[in-house]
Design brief:
single chain, alpha/beta, 5-stranded parallel β-sheet, 25% helix, 26% strand
Amino acid sequence: MCPRPRSERVVVIGAGHAGVQVADSLRAAGHDGPLAVVGDEPAPPYQRPPLSKEHLASTGTAMPLRAERFFRENRIELRTGVTATAIDRASRIVHLDDGGTVPYDVLVLATGAANRTPAVPGADLPGVHALRTLADADEVAAALPRARSVLVVGAGFIGLEVAAAARARGLPVTVLEAADRPLGRAVSPVMAEHLADAHRRMGTTLRLGEAVAAFTGRGVVSSVGLEYATDLVVVGIGVVARTALAAAAGLPVSDGIVVDENLRTADPAIYAVGDCASHPSAHTGTRIRLESVQNATDQARHVATAILGDSGSGPYAELPWFWSHQGPLKLQIAGVRLPDDESVPCGDPATGRFSVCCFRDGRLVAVESLNRPADHIAARRLLSAGRSPHPGQVGDPAFSLKDFARRPVAA
């Protein structure tokens, strides 16, 4: 990889965690050319994880990703409230909905993802909310103090975080989940069962195997014909990658913008990072798309290095990790679990503080930790180093993941 001129014009579409980090990392690495970040939300870039947690508890203001002066002092042109409508790849120009254009030498797509909307009657009625943007969170936070009950559609991370926040306000909460367990795609059956029980103990009514069939304006009708009266509905049934801009420009998309191991699209002048990028994973051996702040920022740093032509960057291979705070439940995940992986509990789930080690062909590939931050740190260390206990060791009640990670590696 040859070093590129550091005076090239770089344009980033998307002002979320990934987009802002690309700009930050480029300047930190010495790029001194024109640098623009274009975002379609009117608000300055903000942190997304608190939106479904602290923001709902306090109706506080958004936490900025960077202070306003950061953009000024680093000569980063920040354009918010403007949508990129088309990419002219031949001329290397981005067209904007305000009639303007932005030329580029290198373009980074950090377009993120959008909430999935249930294809049922009434999904657009007032009182039916989603939660992804600051505007979404402001609406839910404003509605919570007036609500008499809350119904959440979807028992994924967002749904369960919203449920915990509503229960903390003392509101009756019902969660409808079409699958037979919460977080079905994200965690092992052992962890999912424990989380379901914990939410029930917090007072949430979990209705598993029951989807939404219609929104009525006064509540919800479920797939089994039951009616739930409520004055606040929050839908959290996952997201879809925002790929329309890339697809219209002729770039390959498949559950995300398709990129190579250096996060470059089929066009050598265009990269994609974060929630919108489908990349070959060194941890699963498959193409995956990850929705997490850690993935967004790590991919952004990698792309900045790739743009500057650092030959030592190598393929993107950062270990994925995630977290979710659901009231008193602090869930942390290191690595990526696949459905057929073997799951072995580490510690006693009855204590509410335990981990689940996930093995693929006898090798540790992921660890889910509940209220055990030391296990999470140990897991990241082990997985990054390619070290693994065997499943039989983890099943021993005396086994400690933290102690295992501290052991010296045999020569």
